[in-house]
Amino acid sequence: MSNLRIPGPTPCPPEVLQAMSWQMINHRGPQFAGYLKEVTEGLKTIFQTKNDVFILSCSGTGGLESAVVNTLSPGDKVLGVSIGVFGDRFATIAKTYGAEVVSLKFEWGKAADPDKVADALKANPDVKAVLVTHNETSTGVTNDLAAIARVVKSAGKLLLVDAVSSMGSINLPVDEWGLDVCVTGSQKGWMVPPGLAMVSISPEAWKACEAAKMPRFYFDFLKAKKYGEKGQTPWTPCMSVVFGMTVAIKMMLEEGHANIVKRHERIADMTRRNVKALGLELFADEKYASNTVTSIRAPKGLDGKLINKIMREDHDIILGGGQQELEGKIFRIGHLGWVDEKDIEAVFAALKVALPKAGFKGA
Ligand SMILES: *Cc1c(COP(=O)(O)O)cnc(C)c1O
């Protein structure tokens, strides 16, 4: 079996894969309602929220789209805070549906500066919502979302959060930080395959939802709420992933969320230490380096794609590459979900052999 070390999809425990093979049942019957309830309650524990949490059948991007179309109207001004590919994507979704996007971009590898967010809100008092990525998977940076949320909420704006690659793995207390819509995806920290997005919706977001005029059908939160009350989803859900999720959530609650967060911290620390010990350089500002994905600068004169190719062909270890302008310039190690120290030790044992083969002469 390959050592799949990309930041999603992530490997799934055998118990989860087994649940994925359960026979189909009535998606509008009592048994499936029980599964939905169980998973939703578990999600609320991990989201640390009393807000509504819905399970949508789509990848994380669908969840981001749902956040936009359910809270905004065409012509609304939004502040799109971006530190990488996914921050840009969130803003593009808003633009696509007719929002007027004020872009606040930061250098890739760096975190967003909460003071600059405050300045942008002062300069644009008519902004209705702020879009921000918690954990920017493309650069391996985790924003100081607590500080950003303080700025945004004290300005009285809606805060829509892409927490696709952090929720479950990095501490993210939705209610304490006042996050209005928070989105995650099943294939990241949740130890299940792709197919589901999970979103939380605050009372303030519900108010915005009533006034929101962006077109929506499949991702309509009001429909999700109406069917949710009956223990159903409006449309046939990705049932096998929900089956898998019942097992994964149970495993996560057994380990305990605080322990999961600590495990991710520990493994990320170990990854960063190993990167430096090899004489390589972290791409992310270390103060904000992500606990779910580590980005590494390709050594001077070396193509990150070649390193990943050797790792794949010689060692059956699958690493992430750089996206867009970072293609070939960085490579990334995913360490979220079902991961322990041994998985990462294997990566570095292989890198010790793969790097010289790629032409790396050492630091
Ligand atoms: C993976 C990811 C997404 C969503 O990607 P999908 O391919 O649609 O699941 C969005 N934001 C971040 C930060 C991600 O890591």
Set out the fold topology:
Elements: E1 3-5, H1 14-19, H2 30-47, E2 52-57, H3 60-71, E3 77-82, H4 85-96, E4 100-105, H5 114-123, E5 129-133, E6 135-136, E7 141-142, H6 145-154, E8 158-162, H7 174-177, E9 181-185, E10 196-201, H8 203-211, H9 221-228, H10 239-255, H11 257-277, E11 281-282, E12 293-297, H12 304-315, E13 317-321, E14 330-334, H13 341-358
Parallel strand pairs: 1-13, 3-4, 3-5, 5-8, 8-9
Antiparallel strand pairs: 2-10, 6-7, 9-10, 11-12, 12-14, 13-14
This protein binds pyridoxal-5'-phosphate.
Assign the CATH superfamily of the largest domain: Type I PLP-dependent aspartate aminotransferase-like (Major domain)
**What's the CATH class label of the largest domain?**
Alpha Beta
Query: Span from first to last CA?
Result: 32 Å
Unreliable runs, pLDDT <50, ≥5 residues? none
Element string (H = helix, E = strand):
EHHEHEHEHEEEHEHEEHHHHEEHEEH
Q: CATH topology of the largest domain, anyone?
A: Aspartate Aminotransferase, domain 2
Count every helix, treating DSSP H or I runs of 4 or more residues as helices: 13
Describe the structure.
This protein folds into 2 domains: 3-7 and 256-357, Aspartate Aminotransferase, domain 1 (Alpha-Beta Complex); 14-254, Type I PLP-dependent aspartate aminotransferase-like (Major domain) (Aspartate Aminotransferase, domain 2, 3-Layer(aba) Sandwich), CATH 3.40.640. The chain has 13 helices and 14 strands. The chain has helices at 14-19, 30-47, 60-71, 85-96, 114-123, 145-154, 174-177, 203-211, 221-228, 239-255, 257-277, 304-315, 341-358; strands at 3-5, 52-57, 77-82, 100-105, 129-133, 135-136, 141-142, 158-162, 181-185, 196-201, 281-282, 293-297, 317-321, 330-334. The protein has a 7-stranded mixed β-sheet, with helices on both faces. It has a 5-stranded mixed β-sheet with strand order 1-13-14-12-11. Helix 7 links the parallel strand 8 and strand 9 (181-185). The longest helix has 21 residues, at 257-277. Residues 7-8, 59-61, 86, 133, 135, 137, 162, 164-165, 185 line the site of pyridoxal-5'-phosphate.
